[in-house]
Fold each of these.
Amino acid sequence: MTVTITREGTIAVVTVDNPPVNALSQALRQALVEAAAALDADVSVKAVVLLCAGRTFIAGADVNEFDKPPLPPHLPDVVTYIEAAKKPWIAAIHGSALGGGLEVALGCAYRVAVPSASLGLPEVKLGIIPGAGGTVRLPRLIGPAAAVDLVTSGSPVGAKKAEALGLVDTLIDSDLRIGAIAFANSVADKPLPQPISSRTVPAVDAGFWESAQMAVSAKAKREVAPLRALASIRNACEADFASAMAFERETFLSLRGSPQAAALRHVFFAERAAPRPPELAGVKPRDIRSAAVVGGGTMGAGIAAALRDAGLPIILVERDGVAVERGLANIRAIYEGSVKRGRISEEIAVDRMAGVTGSDDYGLLANIDLVIEAVFEDITVKHAVFAKLSDVCRPDAVLATNTSYLDPSQISEGIAQPERFLGLHFFSPAHIMKLLEIVPTETTAPDVLATGFALARLLGKIPVRAGICDGFIGNRILKVTRAQAERLLLSGATPSAIDAAMRSFGLPMGPFEAQDLGGLNIAAFQRKAARVRGEMPFAPIADRLCAIERFGQKSGGGWYDYQPGERAPLPSAIVAGIIAREAGGWPQRPWDEASIVDAIVLPMVNEAARILEERVALRAADIDLVKIHGYGFPHWRGGPMHYAEARGLIEVLSAIDELSAEGLADQPSEGLRSAAQAGGFSGLAG
Ligand code: 3H9
């Protein structure tokens, strides 16, 4: 870390260089205070430009320090020090001014930024609130309504919007350093602007806080930080500056040590570790400038849209003209939906479709860099597709399968240059869902695997490397969840009670509602295939429902009944009857919310430990990302593995022991036993 001071005439330029993102470590805070003191004492300096080296302005407090006691100088004091400087400080922003970085900029007399910069207070995404005056200064600068939006959403705004809000004084289109120095010269002899801390807050309309409270709590659901941030802004609008700062700091410090903040920090670091598997360090991915998708069903169309959204030209291949038209219509429907939801404009939708070519001619793929197969889950159909791709594609083209349940190694049999083949398992809807399971075979070349990770980055997805097994990481755990849900039914719980308990735990939907929405037939098809392989999947009630064609909402009923045209699930007498018949011989017991959650979540953890033990997943944190980004596990709980560790693995182990003694779960896995003994999953990971 270095902070250097250079001179351009009477302007001092303070350059912060603390790679990778100029986070405000203790050493940097100290250096900023020292720079401010030295420059205040230097009569030859009329104004100060605060600039950052590298790819970004200060991106916030150093999150690595949040598990330790705070060390002086504390950030609020650093900001106060800069705000009290005798000469104007000008924050010159490129990249991201986030969290503490923006708070430092708010201590400066002026803020200038390049148009590509973004500014924000993302603290709520880490389970905390801004802790260095963000909730107190922001409403004094841009008004309460804009401050509430920015702080409670945690989403940054672009520099142009920031200028319109009054957060940035001037945009600098040319070289930032030169532009900021010119700006500094233009204000050097003017009186200092009134510090933000001593400005008054504009009044709000009657009922403003009540409606903000309702809107924020509806969005936050059970996340604590957004409402606490709102309370801090409200207090800052109603109290004097000093007491508002004290209130903010107290809230920040209490949240910093909270379980939600610990969980969200775990997710933050997991998301940053996942895209960089150590074994691929230094491996150069292949170039991907064009892509094709084979199969235009729901998955294929979603994958095509995801690739297209990342700017790649796309060819969609289907078996005949009618199927091509259907595939193109599926992609078009995705873009029409995005326009309707206000996600993109009509012009963008037209442009995206213009970049998609539909064809039944594999010959068009002769010069394509990446082809993803998303056809029917049948090994013969897939073999036929890859045989054609082997014939027509360049030998260095990357070939991928989006299979969910088949073995990618088997699919790759017979492919010319099998080292260019891998599994890329997207989640539906593929243009929205963030998770991408990357599944190499034994023969996948390192640069092809690296291409999978590079593709994830290009598409803005969270990549997780998964080994080959039935269902990879996510669907393998899902099977356990579903089996558990049926065991609960057989021992006295109802679908509505189980769904309600899981929603109250934080999932967007319970297991039965989710199956009714997605349809029960795909899982039934997979169970049939598993039975052919000699396996014995456990789904006695789902099997009975499928036998009477209760496939879910699309067939008018599944685990629940539905009124025609309605989506509200209604308890079903037919289903209750089937459960009662199947439950004969099962011991009945009472189930409350907590015991339902335990009987579903803890067996997930048990299976996940087995997955780690088998090295199907490389890290426990990867499994957390799979469940959060693919299956709606509440991110503020940190994923099932973090949840289990936070709860204590000994307790988890004994709960599973009890469930399995009652015949309500599998026995604890060896992986779980050894992790419990070691006090964490890190020993299982590699
Ligand atoms: C805060 O400020 C609280 C204050 O209000 C109050 C204080 C009193 N700390 O994301 P990338 C590391 S809370 C430590 O891949 P990109 C990251 O782990 C903070 N490390 O880069 C990774 O390390 P490695 C509010 C951090 O270019 C490397 O940097 N601020 C931090 O895709 C590259 O990260 C935020 O929440 C950090 N704050 O994106 C901002 N940030 O290479 C969070 C990053 O070892 N950061 N690292 O794996 C971001 O949003 C992105 O990193 C950013 C760059 C957009 C800046």
Amino acid sequence: MSITLLAIESSCDDTGAAVFRNGQLLSNVVAGQAVHEQYGGVVPELASRAHQQHLLPVVTAALRRAGIEKTDLDAVAVTQGPGLLGSLLVGNLFAKSFALALGKPLLAVNHMRAHILAHFIREPKPAFPFLCLTVSGGHTQLVVVRSALDMEILGQTIDDAAGEAFDKTAKLLGLPYPGGPRLDKLAQTGNPRRFTFPEGALDGYNFSFSGLKTSVLYFLKKETAANPKFVEENLADLCASIQHTIVQTLLKQLKKAAQATGLRQVALAGGVAANSGLRQGLQVLAQQEGWEVFIPDFEFCTDNAAMVGQAALFQYEAGDFASQLTSPDPRLKL
Ligand code: KG4
Ligand code: ZN
């Protein structure tokens, strides 16, 4: 589409800005927030303050890298939700003010749809309809994607998200936040069948990961009472076994959903798509089931503004603009 668009993402702890022109991504800038590491999780109040500090430099860098002047922009897009209210407010107020000052339309984007539509930033792109498993620090959703504007949740987590399950169990093992990528790395040299933990695949297509966290907690309490060095001596096997449990849970529901819907294009989205166990498990399952698998580049899996821009382009095409009265919605539904 022949428009120039600025997109802004600020739903959690990453501040992002991206520029598209003629449907092509010209720049995608993300500033993470190291401030949360010392607390072992995202602190909402600190996230809002950091967005406030990062947003202008990030937007300026995105425009500069794209070689675009503010006055070249035809529209401004921003994540409306779901996410942390304070974080969303910073991005929303910035985007609204920017759009208002430029006299250009505003597009309000659903963060979870954006994760899915990240598949359309670069080739290879799935064709509609397809099945998408979105797995991030905040969400676990199994979605039938009929079009860019028509999606249906088949199943989702009833408690912790998959990324949260990785991060929380990693924390129990003493790994620094965010533990998911570290647990993944350690798992690569461990035995995934050494320890057994409860899977979280519920009847139907929903997930539950809180039982895994509790089970790991009590297991470690018991073992370390007998041997204080238990975690240290078994770290790789513990990581591999936890990862195996989470991955098997995800793949079990994905397989059920693909069989029930007859969809053979299967897509992964969200930060946990980086997990090596999930990628390998999915490739094996895809061969057995005859699926075509789609996983975006990592920079488009974790929170970023390019996916927000891509979703906004579909909305622009459909004439789905936001009013200046639009406000962020922390619990925005898909
Ligand atoms: O999509 P994302 O950047 O943020 C949210 O919207 O939540 O996902 C971040 C999540 C974190 O929980 C992080 O630990 C997890 O993705 N993650 C991983 C890996 N890389 C990132 N989890 C397991 N293995 C990985 N390699
Ligand atoms: Zn996200």
Amino acid sequence: MSQKMAITGGAGFIGSNLAEALAKENEVIIIDDLSSGKLENLAGIEAKFVRGSITDKELLRNEFLDVDCIFHLAAVPSVQKSIEDPIRINQINLDGTLNVLIAARDAEVKHMVFASSAAVYGDSSEVPKKEYMVPQPKSPYAVTKVAGEHYCKVFSEIYGLQTVVLRLFNVFGPKQDPNSEYSGVISRFISSILTSLDPVVFGDGEQTRDFVFVNDAVRAFILASRSKSSKTYNVARGQGASLNQLIQIIGKIVGSEIRPRFLDARSGDIKHSLADISEAESIGYYPRFPLEEGLKRTVDWMSKYILLNK
Ligand code: NAD
Ligand code: UD1
């Protein structure tokens, strides 16, 4: 049955992939201030686009009227930016989330899915990460996600707005912007390698992440929108890979030997991140894309992207 769905941050990497999937069967509204998202990400997607900020409560309230489900993804997603400018990141990621919740409540929306992050787990030695573990944020970014999760819970208990929290691990794939120093590591590595630059590794490259292909993350959002309880789920592949391993696999895909440039580790960086994904299996989630397959698709997309933007 077709529903009316709103996506905050829908012109961004994950949001635009989600919009593409949802727009096949639903009416979709995207609210995005284009601070890091791009209109070109929405090419060919049938959706209403509203340029505006989640700091604008009035705008949100109007756009949320008659919406069945809100997917709240708008945020500044960079750990490093949050260390450089915690106040601005708090205003967008946390005050913005509170605005979205208030507008959702006022417009009588029944269901919301919140894009939280594996960053909430911090650096505790216990792996894999399970949803019941006590959050140990290591950066202002992670603090905004922990607090946002608490607000979601409180809004579901007090106001009856059903909220599902997805703790996304490291998502990668087509439409991830490689152009900023704050971009996700896979998009940075692939774009450097395809343009014959040495990829930069912060630290010794032995840090690990649980990388998950964007199509899998999108499926998790859609499953969460159908779930009947306000719960929290890890979204990942349930397997870790180090940056050094990534470089080897990408080298094999592009057929060249890669010599990374090693720089000092970044502050606020987590050493190891790995998810237990058994909880998400209860809503029907399981990852379909092996790392290598996801990387091949990302290399294909990035090759075309680089050609088009030459
Ligand atoms: P992205 O930067 O591509 O997307 C974020 C979108 O939010 C952008 O389109 C941006 O323009 C928009 N935005 C920012 N501030 C806004 C504002 N004030 N009002 C309206 N729109 C605003 O990042 P992404 O990787 O697609 O991340 C999407 C969400 O998923 C974020 O909440 C992020 O924290 C979360 N997340 C991402 C990852 C990942 O690996 N990419 C992992 C965990 C969590
Ligand atoms: C990423 C997401 C964050 C999300 C979190 C969940 C981005 C930009 N950040 O943070 O939104 O909440 O996952 O787990 O998508 N690195 C390099 N070289 C580079 C870039 C990065 O070595 O050119 C290193 C970093 O220092 C870090 C690792 O790669 O050790 C991953 O960095 P990054 O992709 O920025 O992701 P996270 O910080 O894990």
